[in-house]
Every structure is written in structure tokens, then in C-alpha cells.
Write the C-alpha cells for this entry.
Amino acid sequence: MNSAVEQQIRILGHKDFKSDYKPVWCAGCGDFGVLNALTKAMAALELSPENVAMIAGIGCSSRIPAYTTVYGFHGVHGRALPLAAGLAVSRPDLTVIATGGDGDGFSIGGNHFLHACRRNVNMTYLVMDNSVYGMTKGQASPTTECDWTGSKLSPQGTHQPPLQPLELALAARAPFIARAFSNSPNELARIMTEAIAFEGFAFVQILSPCITFRPEQLGWKKRVHDGFEPTDDRAAAFAALAEDEGFTTGILYRAPRPRFAPDRREPVDIGAIEKRFEVRS
Amino acid sequence: MSENPDNQSTSELSLALVGSGGAGVMTAGQTLLDAAAASDYYGLMTRATGPQIRGGEAAAILRLSARPVECQDDRLDLLVAIDWNKAERFADELIVDDNSLVVADPGQGEVPAWITDSGARLVEVPFDALTREFRGARTNTIAVGLVAQLIGLEGRDVDATVRRILESKGAKLIEAALAGLELGRTAAADLAGPKRLERRPEPVEPRWLITGNEAAGLGAVRGGVRFCAAYPITPSTEIQEWLAAHLPELGGSLVQAEDELASINMCLGASFGGTPAITATSGPGFSLMVEALGLATQAEIPVVVVDVMRGGPSTGIPTRSEQSDLDIAVHGAHGDAPRLVLAPNSIGDCVTTTQWAVHLAEALQSPAVVLSDQRLGQARAAIAPPPSRDWHAQRKLAGNDTADYRRFTDAEDGVSPMALPGMPGGEYTATGLSHMESARPSASGMDHRRQLDKRRRKFAQFDFGKHWADIDGDGDLWVLTWGSTTLPAREAVARMRDRGHAIGLISIRLLSPLDTEALTEALRSCRRLLVVEQSHGGQFHRYLRSHIELPADTHLLARPGPLNITPGDIVSGLEELTLEDAA
């Protein structure tokens, strides 16, 4: 699989999906790996830049749309998913990819995450998770460990267990759930390719280290390991998560179900609708 | 039809039905309105309810007339109480006098003091006991039969209306309802009614039966809206429900969102993709949308929000009207973010103004707020169809020529051609960040200033035409108002003219940007001015003063909800003005 993807990538040229903007990211940021893998995935899927829209909120990783050559929308904090849903429902011809970080997606935008999983609009959601708010200079996010004391805002730790995005997605009935690592570019590109090609809401948690505010995350390399085997059995997926310490990668769950489709009725013109207001005697 | 020769005949009549929420007074009121419309009358039904779904107080207030009416009268000819549950809350609203008839069920509580003290003639009809005469008969249909008989509505129009309303409910229910009507008619046979409606007016075809909220929905699709994201909130939900039923017939889509943060952002997503989009809400929901409206301004994404206003702040009075969201609609934004704010001033105008809002939002790539309110939105009226307007969503698009495309190019008229996903060569990232013409984020003062200038220029250079206000009359005495208070203002002005006063009325439809030149010109002959608004803080008055010099002799009639401002209130305000003048 990996070599097949690489083969296509060479032919199609992922660089066509990269803009000439210099990212705001710090040197060594995991998000560079995500950008690379994403452009490779888009090339592998033979997408045309004009038919792709990347939708993001606010945060370091939410800057990613402008670093590509596709259509992008860099909206307000936490609302990437509703923006993306409105676009995907009204323009089913487009490939819609929502992106962002753990703060944007699981804290301020947490409610939208649950409902996007349930709603199952045909789109992809890539969360670059570094367990920290980078853009505001290092505060705890929902996925931060409870004993992390590196933030001036929670100097004694958060006193809260970190949120488990995959468990949430599974509970909220997302039909495609995966985890990948920004330092494993081939697996990341493969999982992204499958997520984008999936018919329905596909969620990928991408472990993407913040070397500035969480330099200890450089050690993730040693902890990350593949291991999820795709299943369509929720119980099996929950069981796999019970064994998981947050560093297992792969596609956890893949169970296609009817995707969100707006109501449809027999077409009529507005004149016929207006006639219904007429007084009948 | 039995004849009650004692009754005065009239071309117009006001009545109200009160009862507990769930007793069916709204259905009864609608049946009477629709039956009167079928008999060629015009009419209006206003809803007054407490916040409870069941068990609270509820009143359907109707005015039926041979001429178009869009405002309730100051008093009632007839009040029918199915029960008196919490009806004392209506003491200030349902005004009866010694010319009124009050019909009440003696078994359903004591007649409140405001009724017994009024001098109104009181008769007893045991609605509840009468239901035992026919299995399945309900008090509200008995009340409809009684009222129809008392005021002289044609029996066949009432029967046909009941059949139509219950069409889908099955033969048994229809049979019980028709029996209920008959029980009501029989109960009315011995009663001397209030005034009776004259013979049928000349039929005017066609007329519509429509609520303000339905009208806003229709205006949206007339303007080209094909996407709605909805989160239910009183009193705006009917707009979204109407669109849910009708957008699918027009190839459009509706999504029920998880909250208002989502609904407004879904609309922005759809509009970014080129689909004209709308959402409807009320004050609390609008408050949640404010951040995204700023994004719509900065990223120049057209979107329309209908705010069906209710009493505020916070949860306030969800079921009653107020015009107190003007401040947030105009100024509710961080940064310098001028936006379009429009207000319909009649039920029919809910169609026209919403359609115009879609047209303007699309033409100017700007958010537009339509300020309706509960008084307009939840009222149902028989009206002449609103005029057809040539206002459609016409966005300036980049087209095929995307060589060196710049999304926010510094266009002379401020409106930069918009590329839509799917257009090759137009790829850009819309952003809430200050940006260059290319859409590239920029913190430079020059870029910031240039885009602020460009966005302001869009409004300054656009020709909004004559629709910014409805102006009627001349002279030195004027009423200046907006939105739903235009309804009682029109009637008050007509009454004053009947008394020989020369008086003018201005109702501002385009609140932002305010056409200060045209408003100043319209007020040129004005020496005495009455500003009328349904808000405690005088938001409209303050807004006007921030833009133009009002005449020195300007009075303010500003009152919060839930009591709607009546024609009589405005006449009193004008009398004070004219008396002062005489003194």
C-alpha cells in the first residue's frame, strides 16, 4: 500500500498542492509533516485544487489552508466543522477537509465535534493534536495530561483527566476513526488518503508535536506504534481503545452508514408555492 | 343564518378568545380568521401567550374588516373566555368597555375584576358542559361556532374552513368539530351579539393568508436563498419550519444545527460555496452569532439573519414582542464592522424586505440583519399579495478570467469579484485576519486601512433607491418610526387626519446604512416630531440622534414590551404634541 501511494505521488506531484506562503509554524513543528502528507494524499487521490476546500478555525494548525493551493476558509475559533458542513451539504461536488488543533476542535469547538460525528456529512476532519495551545504561548488543552505544570495558567496542573478524542468519536457514532503521527509520513498520507476517500465523516487524530511549548513530545517517536486494525464492530473498537495509551496508530473503526442528506421533495416553482397562500373559499 | 335585528352592523370588528395554553384558542382564532377571509374579509390575528406550552395563559386577538388591517384596535367588541386561567395577565391588553360583550363559561372560574368593572355586558355559556352533548366535541370549536354566529360569519365558510384545517385528521374528528360548531351556533341563537359584520365585501382576488414568519421565509426564497441552517428559538422557529418544508421543493437544503454558533457558521460555509444562505433566530441566538457576523464582514461573505425580536435582555419574554435588538443589530460587532440592517414594516413587507435583504447581502458581499419581531412574525393576516420585485441574489463573480486573481482587489465600488470553489485559478483562503488584496494575511496598517476603506465604500457607493423608507404625507407634524410599530403609527396618523390634522409618517426600512441625507430631506418641513419605538432605552431615538439633527421639538414615545404600542397610544402622544403647540 505504502509503495503504491508513493508511486502515484511521484507521478502527480504533491508540490502542486503547496502554496508559496511561508508557514507561521516554528522550525521542527509536527504540522510541517501533516502539510506534506496532506498534499501527497491530495495528489494521490488525483484531486484538482479548485475542487477541494480546506476549512479551519483558529490556532497554529488552523493556518494550514493558506499553505495549500486549494480553496480555503480560515474562520473563527472552534467553528471549522459547521463551516465545513454548510459547504459540504450545499456543494456535494466538492472535497471538503476540515482541519485544526486540539483546542479548536475539542475545547471551544467540542460541541460541534460530537454533532459532526453524529451528522455524518461527507467530509474529513484532521485534528493536529499537540496537547497545548501554541498560538497563545502554551496553555493546557483538553488533551493535556492532568499533571502538566508547564503553563502559567495552570501552574499546578489541570486537575482534569485528558479528553479521549477517539472514544468520543466512537461514542458519537463517527463512521471512520483513525489516529496517525506526523513523524510517520507514509502511514499518515495513507490514512489521510483513506479518510478523504471515505464516504461520510472521517476523523483522524494526528499526533503532531509542539517542539516549542512541549519539547518533551519529541519523545513521542519512541512511544508511537501502529496497531489498530480497522473494524466495523463498535465493541471491538472500544476494546482496542481500552488497551490504548494514546499512541496506537492506524484506522480504528470503519463502518460506512448512510451519510447526511438534506430532505428532497418533488420540485415546484415559487409561483406554485405562493399559490398555497391564496384564500380559498 | 338567524337574524339578530338588534345588532348594529359594522364593516369591522375586534374580538379575542382567551383560555389556558392547550385549550385551543389559537386554532379557534385561526379558524375564525380563515373563515372570515373565505367570506372576502381582511383580517389579522395576533398571538399573546405566556412562555408555557400548556397551562399558561393564551389569547388569540382578531380584527376582521372589509378593508385591509394590520394592527389590532385599542378595544374589543367581543371577548370569549373558554376559561379564565391566568387571564388577569391580559388586563392591560384586552380592553373591554360598556359597548363590549363578554362570553364566559360560569364553571371555569370567577370573572376577573377588570371585566366586571368595565361595564361590559357579560353572558354565560357553559362551553365545557356543552362538550358532553356530542362525543369528541371540544370547547374551542364550540366557541368558534358561537362567535361566528354572533358576528354573522357565513356558516358554510366556517364549516369549509374547519374541514380544511382538519383535512388530515380523519372523518371522526371532522364530524366532532362540525357538531361542536353547531352546538356553539345553538348556544348563540338566544344571545344578542355585539356588532355584526355587514354583508360580504366585494371580493378582491387573490388575497393571501400568511404569517409574518412565513412571509420572511417566502421573501428569502424569492431572493434566491437555497440554504438554511436552523436552531429553534421562539418566536422565529416558524421561519425555519417553513423553509424546511419548502427549500427541498426548490432544490435547496436545510440543516438543523446543534446551536446558533453552528447555524450561522454553516450559513457562511454554504455562502462561501456560492449558495445564498439564511438563518433565523431571536435575541439570545443572535447574541451567539455576533462573532461570525464579524467574520462575514471581514471575509466579505453574504449572509442574511432574520432576528424575530422578543423581550430582552437574556431570556427576557420569549413569547412577546420588543424592538430592543436595534443596538446589537447595528453595533453588535468588535472592530469597525458596518453591516446591513433592515426592518419590515408589515406582514406583507416581511416578504419584500427579506427579499431585498438577500439581494443587498449578495450584491454587497455583506451580512444583512432583518429585524422582524413577534408582533409581525407570529401574526397571521389576510392581505393583498405583496408586490413582485426584481430583487435576486446576483453576486459579482470572478468568472473565467482568473489570471492574477485577487479576492479582495481594491475595486472602485468596493465590491471585489468573488471566486467560488470549483472555479480554476480562483483558489484563495477566505480569512478573518486582516489581509491584503490577495487574501494573504497581513498586519500592515496600510493593508488594514485599505480593506476597511474598501468595505465602507461598498455601502457609500451603492444606490439603495427609494426603498430605504416609506414616507407618507407632509406638513410640520411627523411621526418617525420603524418595523412593527409602523402598524399602529399608520392607523394613528389616519385617525389624526380624519380629525383634520396634516401629519406625515416616515417608517425607516433600511436602518443601516442610514440614508442621512434623504432622512434630513424628508424631515425638512418637520417642526414637531414624535419618534415611536417599542424599547425601554429609546434605542432608535439615540441611533437617529447619532446620525442627524432632529427638530428641537422632538418627543419620544418609547415603551418596552410586552404590551404592544397601540394606535391609541400614538394618538395620545400626538395630542400632547399638538396641545402643547396650541398652548
Remarks:
- DSSP finds 18 helices and 23 strands in chain B.
- Chain B touches chain A through 72 residues (CB under 8 Å).
- Residues 171-189 of chain B form the longest helix (19 residues).
- The radius of gyration of chain B is 26 Å.
